[in-house]
Write a structure and sequence with these properties.
By secondary structure, the protein is mainly alpha-helical. The protein has 2 domains: 213 residues, Growth Hormone, Chain: A (Up-down Bundle), CATH 1.20.1250; 189 residues, Growth Hormone, Chain: A (Up-down Bundle). The protein contains 19 helices and no strands. Helix 1 packs parallel to helix 7 and helix 10 crosses helix 17. The longest helix has 35 residues. The relative contact order is 0.14.
Length: 402
């Protein structure tokens, strides 16, 4: 591949990862709008996340087998096609009086992102190749985090355009998802025209093919189950917190601000996660992954308990501060779960770990149920317990000397 084509390929991949992160968090930000427009309870509103994350359960391993046959670039284009179809279908679904009509649209968007998980990461790693592949992947993952940081500000501008900036006006949601569809169509054209699949062993799809081959060796079952549990509860905790940040921050006993202002403040949570990821890499190398994960989970749980027991600015600062300690958790759990395994076994384990992302759809339902009955502050005990489980996982990993 020529230097010019490589540069163009990296550029369109950077835009892809940014858009991917932006769309993912905009779905989080849409929950209070759907809740108000359709007059839902918290538990009912969290069906958005249930529809989103069940895509990982059904397609997490299957998408690897599909991409292994059609190629990485084709896998990215299929993912974008799913996302475009889902974004466009949100518009007519939102005109109905039945919230359930919106859920298939969210599921379609998630199916697209699942294909991107399988296809885009190997492409990003392969475009540099050799010793630079990890750095390239880290860079584009950072752009994904930048997209998640930008999403709350976009939501604040477009979702809350009704009287007094209150949630519940679906016009902003329709406009946003129409714009997303248009941008993804343009991005698909750029990828089709400019993105070239790198021709080197690291970028091939042999590993996704291996992901579809079934469970790892029986002797690895217990460590795998512990790792899947940690992924399940981490994603569940993060989604539970992020999806109700606007409602929590805008409530009378916390900051008593408009939903639009709360959406902007939610950017601090995602900005903290970005900072935590950028600072975490050298710290993990120096002090050990298991030790840092132990500290981060304790801090996250402690901040949630503090947010639950306090009010006002202190509670707001505590819940937003959790983002900093989330930054390293997902990649660290993943790395600890595959540590010490052969390359083939790592590929298989990765497929199983990806299915555990479905926790982002299940844990919030329990969180929402408790929020409906006891309030959002009391419901924070659910993600706090999730972090306690990850703390136990980290201690087990530490005993193994990881």
């Amino acid at each position: 591949m020529s230097a010019r084509r490589r540069y163009l390929s990296k550029s369109v991949l950077a835009m892809l990862f940014f858009a991917w992160g932006l769309v993912s968090v905009l779905i989080d930000m849409s929950i209070p709008v759907f809740k108000g427009a359709f007059e839902l309870t918290f538990q009912q509103a969290f069906l958005v996340q249930f529809a989103f994350f069940t895509a990982y359960l059904f397609l997490g391993r299957l998408s690897g087998a599909v991409v292994a046959r059609i190629g990485l670039r084709a896998g990215v284009l299929i993912g974008l096609a799913f996302m475009i179809a889902g974004a466009l279908s949100v518009v007519p679904a939102s005109f109905s009086r039945n919230f359930n009509f919106v859920l298939p649209s969210i599921f379609a968007i998630a199916c697209g992102i699942t294909f991107l998980q399988v296809s885009a990461n190997p492409l990003a790693a392969g475009l540099s190749g050799g010793s630079k592949s990890a750095g390239q992947l880290t860079m584009v993952q950072g752009l994904n985090s930048l997209g998640t940081f930008a999403a709350p500000f976009v939501a604040g501008l477009l979702f809350f355009i009704g009287p007094n900036d209150a949630p519940g006006d679906l016009a902003g949601v329709r406009l946003t998802f129409m714009a997303i569809a248009a941008l993804l169509v343009i991005l698909s054209g750029l990828i089709f025209a400019l993105l070239q699949t790198p021709q080197n062993p690291e970028a091939q799809v042999a590993r996704p093919a291996q992901i579809a081959q079934g469970a790892p060796n029986p002797s690895d079952t217990i460590p795998l189950i512990l790792g899947m549990g940690a992924i399940f509860f981490y994603v569940g905790a993060e989604v539970s917190i992020s999806s109700t940040l606007i409602s929590f921050l805008s409530s009378a006993d916390i900051l008593d601000v408009s939903a639009k202002r709360a959406a902007s403040l939610a950017g601090i949570f995602w900005g903290g996660a970005l900072i935590g990821r950028l600072l975490g890499a050298p710290i993990l190398t120096r002090f050990g992954a298991a030790r840092i994960l132990t500290i981060c989970t304790l801090m996250a749980a402690g901040l949630l308990v503090s947010a639950s027991l306090t009010s006002g600015l202190i509670a707001a600062a505590c819940i937003l501060g959790v983002g900093v300690f989330n930054g390293v958790q997902f990649p660290t759990i993943f790395a600890l779960s595959i540590s010490g395994r052969s390359l083939e076994n790592r590929a298989r384990v990765s497929g199983w770990l990806c299915t555990a992302i479905v926790g982002g759809g299940i844990v919030p339902l329990l969180y929402g149920r408790l929020a409906d009955t006891s309030g959002l502050s009391a419901a924070l005990v659910v993600p706090a317990l999730c972090y306690i489980y990850i703390f136990i996982f980290a201690r087990v990993a530490a005993k193994k000397g990881v």
